[in-house]
Write a structure and sequence with these properties.
The chain is an all-alpha fold and about 625 residues long. The protein contains 27 helices and 5 strands. Helix 1 packs antiparallel against helix 2 and helix 1 runs parallel beside helix 3.
């Protein structure tokens, strides 16, 4: 199904990548400078997964996977209810090993593809591996379906087995899906069709985006470099970039409209068959978070628009000396901001010093990313835009992808993705089925890494102007993470609801997009013709519907978490590492309880939002 793997295997490949939304982070926060300006940027060394696409190890693992899935089904299908605790434990271990091998294959193929999405050989290898994994794992579809037919008392008796007991969260999450599962035949059909369903439309979107060409000031650029010029120091360059992005997106809008229409309708059909009450239900279940918690977050952020984004952008309008802000001014540097490119080595040192300042262990865990080929940093032809951290599998290590362009926000993106990497390394000891953290908590370590880096830079500010630039940058990042992502979430909710009434035209989707823009950005803005198409390039709407609220969840949570750290630092580090080590083995209420925090309390979100409002207070006081 869309958000939950019914065989209890982890998801690997594009949907598992933590790709940061272009419009909130990397995409609109950099310049279009050449990668050679920033020092020796690292490339991935994927040999820790496989030596090469034609390596014998690839064939070995594919052959093993095919046989292991067949034998698993032969040994267990129709027999799960008869197992005792020891028997179910052995079954889970075999399932976990299958997940690990499938995940290694899928991760390797996916990472190769994202290094160069326009390379035909890589695209074919990725597609072939996806096809084989889908076909080979088809016999495992029965597993969660059959588990959910076992009486509760029988499952509870199994879980009294000491070794099986640690997998209780797996069974609890499967049981939550019980009201929405289809017949065995329909689940198998959906599994087999997945390679020509959402996955195929995802690829069409990725390849279309990768092929787009933009001409700005006489230079032909890809999407990443062209659109990031919207934060250039020169306002004419920012405007030229924004208008060219709008022009090219408009020319391709028919394709993007088809992709969104199709995926939204596919989701609607699946929700109807499964009895999902809302389009968001599957995402909430996948995230192991209650709908009312997400709505409390959403409502708190929307209510805070006037004291956050509206207030900040009015300040920025004055700083820039404008009557109105245009979309190309939203992430413009401040007039007093230094536009000097930050060298890669300097960016690495900034982040590593911040991590070490929190605890030496943080820096130790981060070091291999820089020294062992776990980061791919440069902007390259055909490379996927944005940034992500991918955990791969628990017997390997994570990989981080960046598109580094030398700006301060690129340093923050490095801190963010490295936080994911550290989290994924720590959680790996949980094993393949319990290491993957729900998306709402998956952003905790990443945003905390950013906060550590920001606070270190703020302490080192030598002048009021430096402090002002840092505070403004942090406020803008928080607005992009909290306000923008909740606005994106509202857009998605409106889109999926509207699609239930029939095919949506490009104009209809454009109107939905604009309906959330003025509300979220505020009266300081006016919007150029063409901005209504900017929904079309945001990958999360395609790859991971409703994912975006996880960013806001993570940012709000970390603001509260950091406040707890400042108020009571004694013992905080140990509790923090324990939280990351838990991976997906605990619910958010259990993970936050040691810090005295509760995300189900509406006041929890107000506490985090107040931290951003206080930064705006300080900025206003500086004027």
């Amino acid at each position: 199904m869309r958000f939950s793997n019914t065989s209890a295997l982890r998801a690997h490949g594009p949907q598992a990548l933590d790709a940061r939304a272009y419009d909130s982070r990397v995409f609109d926060a950099n310049t279009g400078a050449a990668t050679g300006d920033f020092g020796d940027l690292p490339d991935w060394d994927l040999s820790d997964l496989y030596p090469a696409v034609d390596a014998p190890e690839v064939k070995r693992d594919l052959d093993w996977l095919e046989e292991a899935c067949v034998s698993f089904a032969k040994d267990y299908e129709g027999k799960l209810a008869e197992l005792d605790g020891a028997g179910m434990y052995d079954c889970i271990l075999r399932n976990e090993r299958i997940s690990q091998v499938a995940g290694r294959l899928g991760s390797y193929a996916g990472l190769l593809y994202y290094q160069n999405t326009v390379d035909g050989e890589r695209a074919k290898f990725f597609s072939d591996i996806q096809d084989k994994i889908t076909n080979f794992t088809a016999p495992l579809v029965f597993f969660s379906l059959e588990v959910n037919r076992i009486p509760d008392e029988t499952v509870e008796a199994m879980l009294q087995h000491a070794d099986l007991a640690r997998y209780r969260p797996i069974f609890e999450r499967m049981r939550k899906m019980r009201p929405y599962q289809l017949s065995d035949e329909l689940e198998r059909y959906e599994h087999d069709m997945s390679i020509v369903g959402a996955s195929a439309w995802n690829k069409l979107f990725d390849e279309t985006v990768a092929d787009l060409k933009f001409t700005v000031n006489g230079q032909e650029l890809g999407l990443e470099a062209a659109a990031t010029l919207m934060s250039d120091q020169n306002r004419d360059t920012r405007e030229a970039s924004a208008r060219e992005v709008a022009n090219v997106l408009g020319q391709n809008l028919k394709t993007f409209t088809r992709v969104h229409n199709t995926l939204a309708k596919m989701g609607d059909i699946e929700d109807k068959w499964r009895g999902m009450p809302t389009p968001q239900t599957g995402r909430h279940l996948s995230n192991d978070v209650e709908a009312e918690v997400v709505e409390a977050l959403r409502d708190a952020v929307v209510a805070a628009y006037p004291k956050l984004s509206h207030r900040y952008y009015e300040l920025k309008r004055k700083w820039l000396g404008l009557d109105k802000l245009q979309v190309w001014d939203r992430n413009a540097p401040l007039p007093l901001e230094d536009d000097k490119a930050i060298q890669w080595d300097d960016a690495r040192d900034m982040v590593m010093q911040a991590y070490a300042g929190f605890h030496p262990k943080m820096a130790e865990l981060a070091e291999p990313f820089f020294t062992k080929g776990w980061i791919d940093a440069g902007v390259k032809e055909g490379k996927a835009p944005g940034a992500f951290a991918h955990p791969t599998v628990t017997d390997a290590h994570p990989y981080v992808m960046l598109n580094y362009l030398g700006k301060q926000r690129d340093v923050m993106t490095l801190a963010h993705e490295l936080g994911h990497g550290v989290h994924q390394v720590l959680a790996a000891d949980q094993g393949e089925l319990l290491s993957s953290t729900p998306l709402t908590l998956a952003e905790t370590a990443s945003v905390f890494g950013e906060m550590l880096t920001f606070q270190q830079l703020l302490k080192g500010a030598k002048t009021q102007n430096e402090r002002k630039v840092l505070l403004a940058g942090k406020v803008e990042d928080s607005i992009n993470t909290l306000v923008r992502q909740i606005a994106f979430y509202d857009f998605e909710c409106k889109l999926h609801e509207a699609r239930k009434g029939g095919e949506l035209t490009s104009d209809a989707i454009n109107a939905l997009w604009m309906s959330v823009q003025g509300e979220s950005l505020g009266p300081a803005f006016e919007f150029m013709d063409g901005y209504e198409t900017f929904w079309s390039y945001i990958p999360h709407f395609v790859h991971s519907p409703f994912y975006v609220y996880a960013y806001a969840f993570g940012d709000g949570l970390v603001n509260a978490l950091y406040a707890a750290y400042v108020e009571n630092p004694d013992g905080f580090e140990d509790k923090y590492f324990d939280m990351l080590k838990a991976g997906g083995s605990k619910h958010h209420t259990d993970l936050l309880a040691p810090f005295g925090l509760d995300a189900s309390d509406p006041k929890f979100w107000d506490k985090g939002l107040s931290m951003i409002s206080a930064m705006i207070d300080e900025l206003e006081a500086m004027d």
